[in-house]
Amino acid sequence: MSELPPLQKILVTGGAGYIGSHVIYTLQKTRRYKVISLDNGHNSHPTALSRVSALSRSELPENASARDIETTEIDSHSCDLTRRDEIRTVFEKYGKGGIWAVIHVAAYKAVGESVEFPLTYYENNVTATLFLLQTMAEFDCTRIVYSSSATVYGVPPIIPIPETTLLKADSPYGKTKVMSETMLDDLCHADSKWSAISLRIFNPAGAHPSGQIGEDPKGRPGNLLPLLAHMAVGRVDATTLKIFGNDYPTPDGTCVRDYLHILDLAAGHLLALEALSPESKLFDSTPDARYKAYNLGQGRGISVLEIVDAMRKATGFDFKYEILGRRRGDVPDLTADPALAEKELGFKANQDLAIMCRDLWTFQSKNIDG
Ligand SMILES: NC(=O)c1ccc[n+]([C@@H]2O[C@H](COP(=O)([O-])OP(=O)(O)OC[C@H]3O[C@@H](n4cnc5c(N)ncnc54)[C@H](O)[C@@H]3O)[C@@H](O)[C@H]2O)c1
């Protein structure tokens, strides 16, 4: 019998966070990769990765091979991407060419906080990306999938938003995402060894349906769905949700966002990773540079009031809300045009809002204190 090639090693930065942990689970499910995770614990808990491994292991058949079992193990590194020496230590362990590709998920992500502390955001999201890319180059690792964000569009002139929209981020956070994308684009133009895909993520929600892994932010959640879940289990003081503005030009007057299930999003990361392989035809249409950017969303706008209603149905909790004035910086509608990702990557976010809320609630009610 011919021997199988060694498992490809994929480094996931921010692997212990919300998106990173579901991306790792999705990679493990293919049984083709050996995952290396790097995280500094800024917004993650020490048990996050062992939960992912346990979940993947539980899905293996009884007669799983040693190789299959190896795919459920994670090489985990406590590493801060703003520390060049710490990143080098991780890459040194695997040597030149030892890591096949990087999925770069780690970043700070709170828009409001970035307005207050811009330099912290530029350091953690831009300097960190620069250090990562420099270290990758040094170790002959030249494939990268980057978790970007819909915030790169600022206030978009066209809804649903196509990728061709001029990038005009408003907040320092959004600008850090534009700057990181720009670095990747420039690098791919300068050096044909590099290939990179930026994924402009809209609003991920939900959890693995088992409730074994999910979103568990430190402190008060900044995003609407986890905030509602925390309210329903009594983990935040607030009993009344503050809704900022109901006079926007949207069907019910509240802001509209494009939600997609976290496992659909993770599948999008896997598709992008696979598209970086030398056999992929993805970059045939861009001979000058192996760089592309895609929207990952469902292509359907959902309002704040629709979310509250869906969470009421999923949890049985009677959320109270009050309407306040508009909040500075809020954009009325951020709905993706996901057609390009569907056409070129084969990406489709199929799971609807009721499933997202159900899975979020399964996770939250099983893990009341996180
Ligand atoms: N969750 C969303 O709503 C959303 C939407 C669009 C884009 N994104 C992007 O997706 C990415 C991940 O988001 P998430 O929701 O998983 O966030 P998260 O906070 O749950 O995960 C990020 C992880 O990165 C780690 N990290 C942060 N700075 C680090 C550093 N300097 N070195 C090492 N590790 C570091 C954190 O500890 C955390 O575990 C971010 O880049 C974010 O901008 C998220």
From TrEMBL:
GO molecular function annotations of the record: UDP-glucose 4-epimerase activity
GO CC terms, sorted: cytosol
Domain NAD-dependent epimerase/dehydratase: 10-276
Annotated metabolic or biological route of this protein: Carbohydrate metabolism; galactose metabolism; Carbohydrate metabolism; hexose metabolism
Catalytic activity: UDP-alpha-D-glucose = UDP-alpha-D-galactose
Family: Belongs to the NAD(P)-dependent epimerase/dehydratase family.
Stated role: Mutarotase converts alpha-aldose to the beta-anomer. It is active on D-glucose, L-arabinose, D-xylose, D-galactose, maltose and lactose.
The protein's name in its UniProt record: UDP-glucose 4-epimerase
